[in-house]
Amino acid sequence: MLSENALADEFGVSRTPVRQALQRLEFEGLVMSRHGVGTIVTTVDLQYLREVYALRLKLIDLIGEMSPARVTAEDIELLASLAARARALRSRREPEELARVYHSFNDELSRAIGNQPLREIADRLFYQTTRVWLQLLPEMVWEDEVDTIVDEIESVLQALRREDMEGVAAVRRAHMVKFLGRVNRYLERPVLSLP
Questions:
Q1: Most buried residue, 47, 93, 116, 144, by CB count within 10 Å?
Q2: What is the pLDDT of residue 195?
Q3: What is the pLDDT, as a whole number, of residue 188?
Q4: Where are the domains of the chain?
C-alpha cells in the first residue's frame, strides 16, 4: 500500500505531483487504485511477464532495424561513466545504486531510438519487467550481476562507437536471454521461459 502523504513527505513535494506519479504508475500497470482502500503495488503476473519479455525481444530487433544511431560524443562519455559507476559497485553491495545505474543506461539507450512510438513502448515494457530483477537482486550473486551489467554497457558502447544499432540490439537481446536464465535459476523453476 502506498500513501500519498508519506510519499510527499519522503520526496519533499506536495501531494499533487505524487498523485500524478501514481496515476502514471497505474497507467503503466505497476500500481492500482482502489476506491476506499488506496493505491496498491500490483503483483507480478507471470504469464503476462512472459508475454512482455517475448514482446521486448521482438522490439529489440525492431529497434536495431528502425533506429538510426543518434549518439553524440557526450552520450558515449555518459555511457562510459555509467560503466565505471557499475564497475565501482563490484566491491560495494548497493542494489539501489546498481538499479539506478542500469535505469540510467536504459534511459540513455532509449534516447538513441529514432522512432518515438517505439521508444515509448520499449520504455514502458522495460519498467514493467525490471521490477522482477529489483526484487531478486538482493538474493543474486552480487559480483555476477555487476559484471553482467558492466559487460552489457561496454558491449553496447562498442556497437555505438561503430554506429551499429543492429549490434546494440544483438547485445541487448543476448543479455535479456541470459537474464531470463538467471531469474529462472533463482526462482528454481522456469517460470519466465519464453513462449
A1: 93
A2: 47
A3: 62
A4: 4-41, 46-187
Grid cell for residue 84: 565505471
pLDDT tens per residue, range 66-89 = 766 678 899 999 999 999 999 999
DSSP string computed for 52-114: HHHHHHHHHHHHHHH------HHHHHHHHHHHHHHHHGGGS--HHHHHHHHHHHHHHHHHT-S
- Per the CB < 8 A criterion, the answer to whether 173 and 179 are in contact is no
CATH of domain 4-41: 1.10.10.10
* Residue 125: exposure state from Cβ atoms within 10 A (0-12, 13-18, ≥19): middle
Superfamily name with CATH number, domain 46-187: GntR ligand-binding domain-like (1.20.120.530)
Nine-digit cell string for 142: 552480487
In contact, 31 and 2? CB cutoff 8 Å: yes
C-alpha cell at 174: 543476448
- Express each pLDDT in 34-44 by its tens digit: 887 788 887 77
- What DSSP element (H or E) covers 31? strand 31-34
Instruction: Give the residues across from 38 on adjacent strands.
Output: 34
Rounded Cα distance between 130 and 7, Å, is: 21
